[in-house]
Specification:
The chain is an alpha+beta fold. It is built from 14 helices and 46 strands. 21% of the residues lie in helices and 29% in strands. Strands 19, 20, 24, 25, 26, 27, 30, 31, 32 and 33 form a 10-stranded mixed β-sheet that branches. It has a 6-stranded antiparallel β-sheet with strand order 13-12-15-10-18-21. The structure holds alpha-L-rhamnopyranose (RAM).
Length: 883
């Protein structure tokens, strides 16, 4: 028997963070136990630093196991804190314990002695290496990423060494010939004018008692490279050239410290990389590499002094979430020699990252070009939908027998790669797809016995991975890749099922707050670039919805507190400009139910529904953080009345008569109770009338299956899930999709590709049905007033073609699982409830008296369960109408 045991300890949502700068970090653990009915009744946390006790919570009688604020003596900078938690079980007996640690980074701004440096444009020719003939107009003027270095000599090796580093741009730090850490595209993209993240690395093992070389390569990235689609600002949204900042702190056995900072002592020169740009790609001339430049013994006499560009390292924030990393390598499913010296590589999966190419037997200067595309047209790369993103990497070989090329400061969204100029035959083992994304732990699982539904779930996961590159983006391939708030809020419930995204969203929400317009209202995108300013309905509302979801799913009160003022400011702003409570003014770009199918929901209806929901969420948030909820409760009630007056007819018809209109009215609870049923009947009739097809765009799609199922028509939800003619999820899958398409008609048999100006094959918004796979099909949900899955509602939904379905999630309490299987005329339901949680389980059956527990006892179809694992069998429900 395993007793009640804490596991997966975390500090501020991360396992063992090396550099945090919160004054009072939040400590959390999850719980497991072999005993049904177990629960934590008390905990004790002890924190030590260097063997000295810093905090002892004492025994706290509490079921809380997440978000416990550190309450000890003031944290010191650059210190390691070890912590242990002990828990008491349901009987009040002392049970398991576990430990973890965190380290603080630089907690006080005045501890920064390093300064921002860059290549000195006055002593350095701007384009060195010189312009290469085959550059395009877009890339010709991109400067080469500077290599920066500083040599220093030590008499003793340090006992502890930490590097704090960041860039205005993207950087790779190097020490004594090795890459430091496993970050990609650090420091990531934030609202740079207000906050730049810095990374903390443990480099103790890399520093030696002799000459050492600290170096970095710094490229444009989001700082000065191409970002988004606004050609007026292409290249250089934030600055003209990348800069670097680093502080290496060495601690010696005798207690002394020494710091190596970026300063005027550093020297620089370009290396092999001619240019590197997130959208355009990377161009490398291997013959220009400087072997050993980042290692001791290298002669750097001809390097030039850097420029101190900014002595003031302000706005630095310790990286609070997992960085972008390479998380997987894929091998091609095929490599085809096209006969004209070109090869076509197919990874069989639309992925985000880049290719590592092993080059064998190339001549010096041999030019190898890689172009990337998501789809093919007539056997060739389809590039039009990338718009101005060139997504092209070029390698000029050094002439070695074996060379390896992998671009470092770019990423592409692609399934296919065309390789031109490869010497001889390209073999599959020499091409590796390196998958990168923000490394949020993927802890959710879903599976069933229908291949198309499983593929849908895989497509959703791949969409989440590829589109989370530092910020939640809309798409990873074209000249856009922006942090659209609507896409993020619509997909957030699904994202929170698939992965632990608390720290990721909490960090990005700080950028959302920082990106508010001069009037203090949420934008369409964060970080805020391009011409887009004020948020549209359902777009700006993302700034209200996501903090609320973080609270509901993870119990994240801190983010709710930090977001509250801006959430309220948003709703106040809408209210101020729409005193009659119908949101018609100040609607920004007013996208409506974006990319719907011939069913344009009236925009004022959609907007007002969101206005109502946001007001309600602020009232709920106010109750949580003990503010006055009344004004927003009243406001919500009045908006609801106005909504009914303006948009709901006496017979339950919602103006516009679109699926999304009904879905908003129903899911956001905006109907008088006597019209709920009539309105729902109209929705159901619309789905049936269209022969089980949807018309919803981004805004309506997430609500579709859950709403149909909640009103007793799971049969219709399943019919849509299994649909494979246009428009449907299945249609894209039948036509080979391995990610979620931006548009239902991204490609159709009748019309071919949609307009190239806007046709991404990796956009996650329409994948927001993922939430229903976990919550509806497998049946994992929580009660309306539950936080962090404390009160589960388990309601497995049998239907469609499925013979079984199961899902699991690592919640903040511990593991939750729910699944069902049809076998021998019975349904078998298996559930798992973490310690301390309870569940209301509804066993799907046509006959409640047939439900038996594992001991064969009749228990009825409605069960209230304590924590633990359970199995029930019953007579399955009789299939409904459609299926
Ligand atoms: C597109 C983006 C995004 C959407 C906006 C309105 O350009 O791809 O998905 O939110 O437009």
């Amino acid at each position: 028997m395993t007793m009640l045991t804490p596991y997966a300890l975390s500090t501020d949502g991360r396992a063992t963070p090396l550099g945090i700068d919160e004054k009072s970090p939040l400590l959390s653990w999850r719980l497991r136990s072999d005993r049904n009915g177990d629960a934590q009744t008390a905990y004790r946390i002890r924190v030590t630093e260097g063997g000295t006790e810093r905090w002892d919570s004492g025994r706290v009688e509490s079921p809380e196991n997440s978000g416990i604020a550190y309450g000890g003596s003031v944290l010191r900078s650059r210190a390691r804190y070890e912590w242990t938690v002990t828990v008491w079980n349901a009987d009040g007996e002392e049970a398991g314990a576990a430990d973890s640690w965190f380290e603080t980074a630089l907690l006080h701004p005045d501890e920064w002695t390093a300064v921002w440096i860059d290549r000195n444009p006055h002593v350095h020719p701007p384009f060195d290496p010189p312009v290469v003939d085959d550059l395009t107009d877009r890339t010709r003027h991109l400067p080469a990423p500077p290599h920066l270095r500083r040599s220093f000599t030590l008499d003793d090796a340090p006992v502890r060494a930490r590097l704090y580093a960041t860039a205005r741009g993207v950087y790779e730090a190097r020490l004594n010939g090795r890459k430091i850490g496993d970050h990609e595209l650090a420091p990531g993209w934030t609202e740079y004018g207000t906050r730049i993240l810095y990374q903390t690395y443990d480099v103790t093992d890399l520093v030696t008692a002799s000459e050492n070389v600290l170096g970095a390569v710094v490229a444009d990235g989001w700082w000065s490279g191409f970002v988004g689609f606004d050609s007026r600002h292409q290249a250089q949204h934030y600055g003209a050239a990348p800069q670097f900042l680093a502080q290496l702190v060495l601690e010696f056995a005798d207690g002394s410290t020494r710091t190596i900072d970026t300063d005027g002592e550093w020297v620089e020169r370009p290396g092999a990389i001619r240019y590197a740009d997130l959208l355009m790609g990377q161009y490398e001339d291997a013959s220009r590499a400087q072997p050993g430049w980042d290692a001791p013994g290298y002669d750097a006499n001809d390097w030039l002094p850097v420029r101190v560009v900014d002595p003031n390292p302000a706005n630095l924030v310790a990286e609070p979430d997992e960085p972008v990393r390479v998380t997987e390598e894929l091998h091609p499913v095929s490599v085809t020699a096209l006969g004209d010296g070109r090869h076509l590589v197919d990874f069989g999966q639309n992925l985000v990252g880049r290719v590592r190419l092993t080059v064998r037997g190339a001549k010096t200067g041999q030019r190898i070009r890689l172009r990337h595309a998501e789809v093919l047209e007539d056997g060739e790369l389809y590039l039009e939908n990338l718009r101005t993103a060139e997504a092209t990497d070029v390698y000029l070989a050094a002439g070695q027998p074996v060379e390896v090329f992998e671009p470092t400061f770019t990423f592409h969204g692609f399934r296919y790669v065309e390789v031109v100029g490869y010497p001889g035959l390209l073999h599959a083992q020499d091409v590796v797809g390196r998958v990168l994304h923000s490394d949020t732990p993927f802890t959710g699982t879903f599976e069933c016995d229908d291949e198309m539904v499983d593929q849908l779930h895989r497509n959703i996961r791949w969409g989440q991975r590829g589109n989370w590159v530092s910020v939640p983006t809309d798409c990873p391939q074209r000249d856009e890749r922006l942090g659209w708030l609507a896409d993020a809020q619509i997909f957030a419930p699904t994202a929170m099922r698939n992965a632990d995204v608390q720290a990721f969203f909490a960090r990005w929400l700080a950028d959302v707050r920082a990106a508010t317009t001069p009037e203090g209202v949420f934008p369409d995108i964060a970080p805020r670039v391009a011409m887009l300013t004020e948020g549209a309905p359902a777009w700006g509302d993302g700034g209200v919805i996501i903090p609320w979801l973080l609270y509901r799913v993870y119990g994240d009160v801190r983010t709710l507190e930090r977001s509250y003022d801006s959430m309220a400011a948003w709703v106040d702003h809408v209210h101020r400009h729409n005193p009659d409570l119908i949101w018609r003014n100040r609607t920004g770009n007013n996208y409506g139910d974006w990319l719907q199918v011939d069913a344009d929901t009236p925009r004022a209806l959609l907007a007002t529904a969101y206005f109502a929901q946001s007001a309600a969420l602020i009232a709920s948030a106010a109750r949580v953080i003990k503010k006055d909820a009344q004004p927003y409760e009243d406001l919500h009630a009045r908006i609801k009345d106005a909504f009914i007056d303006a948009f709901v007819e006496d017979d339950g018809r919602v103006v516009g008569d679109t699926q999304t209109g009904y879905l908003l009215a129903l899911a956001f609870d905006l109907l008088p109770s006597h019209l709920v049923e009539p309105a729902f009947e109209r929705l159901a009739a619309d789905v049936e009338k269209r022969d089980h097809h949807l018309t919803t765009g981004f805004v309506g799609v997430a609500l579709l299956c859950p709403t149909l199922a909640a009103h007793g028509r799971a049969d219709l939800a399943y019919a849509l899930l299994h649909q494979d003619t246009y428009p449907s999820w299945g249609y894209s899958i039948v036509h080979g999709a391995t990610t979620i398409w931006e548009r239902w008609d991204g490609w159709t048999a009748d019309r071919g590709f949609q307009a190239a100006q806007m046709n991404s094959f990796n956009h996650y918004s329409l994948g927001s049905i993922g939430d229903w796979l976990y919550g509806g099909v497998a049946g994992i949900d929580q009660a309306p007033d539950s936080v962090g899955y404390r009160s589960l509602v388990l309601r497995p939904t049998i239907g469609g073609r499925l013979g079984f379905a199961r899902a699991s999630q690592e919640t903040v309490r511990g593991r939750v699982a729910s699944g069902w299987r049809l076998a021998d005329g019975e349904v078998v339901v298996d559930v798992e409830i973490p310690p301390g949680s309870t569940a209301e389980l509804t066993v799907p059956t046509s006959d409640p008296s047939s439900v038996r527990d594992a001991d064969g006892e009749a228990v009825g179809a409605q069960l209230r369960l304590e924590s633990g694992t359970y199995r029930f069998t019953a007579q399955p429900p009789t299939p409904k109408k459609g299926h």
